[in-house]
Every structure is written in structure tokens, then in C-alpha cells.
């Protein structure tokens, strides 16, 4: 393991001999008695030496082997060290243009996952992950592009028809794609997000293994209310984690993120809404079936859609990286009217059955 001080952290002097790593004071690491020799040693922790080599170098420059060892242990325990070898291995999993783009993402991961080698391990896992985004509208295409840019190895988008002006956004499909097949335009957007030139890719075939995660983002935003559909039941049955996301009128909705058998599902949310409003199923059916009262110009604020897409991608990454985003057993709403994200709690609905435990026989 070649040790390196995390390049994501700035260094500043708090006083004449106290060095601070990082800017946000409450998270910063602080090192006292930072004299010239110690600073020279820190300069050697640059990812080109392993621990025994660093101890040797510490002795050579007059710091001493034991103080150098103690210092490295302190730096590691404070979360300031990373494994440069593991970093190189993780980045090598990506083609060159994407590798360069991932630097800041990996730097961010190194602050969220603190031990040496922890962040590269997360990035390497992302490289092997397959995500399907269903819906190539203003939200769906942007979610797909952001996930691919963040290191998800395979991101596919499914949708039909041709790109309409209302599908376009700066983070997703460009206006130049209006009139092209949504499927092709979305695939190229995903590829461009990783620095690649667009190329055709083979389509998914029946019998291929299911994706590791599905994002449900239909263009009309109805995903946010559409739990309990046949599509959702299939995902639950197959054990595929999935996230509902969409913009409906002036509201952006992210969640629930469903971990089958573990957290409340989209149908739980539908049943909850039914408890609150008996007419809800009738309204929902008309939304999904192009009912007579359908909006002629569906509302979808560009800034809101982009924020919703970014938050949705972040929640998916957090889940796949081993965290628990707030859309698990809940959902987040943002209104174009005030821009304030809110988290609402969702319990498994007693009539849904998605969290029922199998009874022991007898
Ligand atoms: Zn449920």
C-alpha cells in the first residue's frame, strides 16, 4: 500500500505551528508541532512510498522512525490517508477520458469513506454496477447521465418515441436531439457524460440478468405516484431495488427508494395517499391513462427537474455505496414555489404486504 495524504484536503496554518487539513472547521484534521522537518516528511507522503519506505525516509530526514510511525498512525486514524495503489487500480477500470473526469468524484468519495483504500473500493464497485433508468424525459435522462458520469459502469435508458422539446434539459437531452429516437438520444447523452464518443451498444436481451438497480422516471412524472403497478410488482418479486422519481406540476418527488422486503414500497405510499383521500385512486388512474383532464402543457421547471435528478442520482449512489439515503422508508419533496427540500416518513402499510415476514411452518 502506497500511502498518500488525501489530495481532496486543502492545508492551512491555524497559527505558526498548527496545520489544518480541510476547510470546514468541524470536520478538519489538525496537526500540532508542525515544524520544518515534519512538513518535509508530510511532503513525502505523496503516494510514491509504502509505510516501511516512509519510516526509512523519516529516519533519513531527522524526524526519527518511531515519531514517523506515530505520525502515520495519527494521520490514518484522523482519516487523512489514502492508498494510492488502490486509487490507480480503481481508475484503471475506466477508459481514459472518463478516468480524468472522475478525479473530483474520487476525491469526494475519499472524504465520505475515510480509511485508506475505502474510496477506491467504492469506485471499483460502481464500475461493476448496472443501472436501468426507465424514462428519458427531463428528469430520467439527467439521472442517467449523472449516474454514468459518477462512475456507474453500465447505465441503460429505456423509453419509446421521439424526443420532444419538453424532454430537453441542460443536464439531459440537448435541444439538438428533438425529433430523434429517445432511446438513441438518451444512450448518446449517457456516453457523452463519461467523455466517450457515442457508439451503438447491444440492446438488452431476454434472459440477461436483471440490473442491480432500476430508476423509475416516466416522462409524465407519474412514477412518483405509481407504486403498485405491474412493473413495480415485478421488481419487488425479482428483489431489484428501485427508486421513484419525477416532477408533477410544481412538485419534485424523490422516493421511496425501495429495498424489496426491507423498506416500504411504492404501493405503501399509494395506500397511504388513499387513506388520506378516498378519491385518489380515481385521480391517479386518469393521470396514468391520459384521462380527459390531462394538462395540455405539463409543468416541469428546468431548475427543479435538474435538482430532482441530481438528488435522485445521489440517493442511488448512496444506497449502492452502502449508505441509507433519506428516500428509504420515506420520500423527499421539493416545490418550485419555495425550493425547500422536505423529507417525509413512510411506514410499511399494513394492507400492502411487501414487508410481511413468512410464517414458520406448523
Ligand atoms: Zn409496500
Q: What are the defining features of this structure?
A:
13 helices; single chain; alpha+beta; 13 strands; binds zinc ion; 3-stranded antiparallel sheet; 7-stranded mixed sheet; Outer Surface Protein A, domain 3; 362 residues
- Measured distance between first and last alpha carbons: 54 Å
Q: Tell me the CATH topology of the largest domain.
A: Rossmann fold
Helix-strand string:
EEEEHEHHEHHHHEHEHEHEEHHHEE
CATH superfamily of the largest domain: NAD(P)-binding Rossmann-like Domain
Share of residues in strands: 15-25%
CATH class of the largest domain: Alpha Beta
CATH architecture of the largest domain: 3-Layer(aba) Sandwich
Total strand segments? 13
Per DSSP, the total helix count is 13
Specify Rg, calculated over alpha carbons: 24 Å
Shape: elongated
How many separate structural domains? 2
**Computed structural class:** alpha+beta
Biggest beta sheet summary: 7 strands, mixed
- Model regions low in confidence, pLDDT < 50 over at least 5 residues: none
Spatial order of the strands forming the largest sheet: 8-7-9-10-11-12-13
What's the pLDDT, averaged over the residues? 92
Bound molecules: zinc ion
Give your account of this protein's structure:
With 362 residues, the chain is of the alpha+beta class. It has two domains: 2-84, Alpha-Beta Complex (Outer Surface Protein A, domain 3); 128-345, Rossmann fold. The protein is built from 13 helices and 13 strands. The chain has helices at 36-44, 51-60, 65-77, 84-91, 96-101, 103-112, 118-127, 140-149, 182-193, 230-238, 266-276, 280-288, 302-320, and strands at 2-5, 11-15, 18-21, 29-31, 46-50, 81-83, 130-134, 154-158, 213-216, 242-248, 251-258, 330-335, 342-345. The strands form three sheets. Strands 8-7-9-10-11-12-13 form a seven-stranded mixed β-sheet. It has a three-stranded antiparallel β-sheet with strand order 5-1-6. Bound molecules: zinc ion (ZN). Zinc ion is lined by residues 264-265, 267-268, 348-349, 352, 354. Residues 264-265, 267-268, 348-349, 352, 354 line the site of zinc ion (ZN).
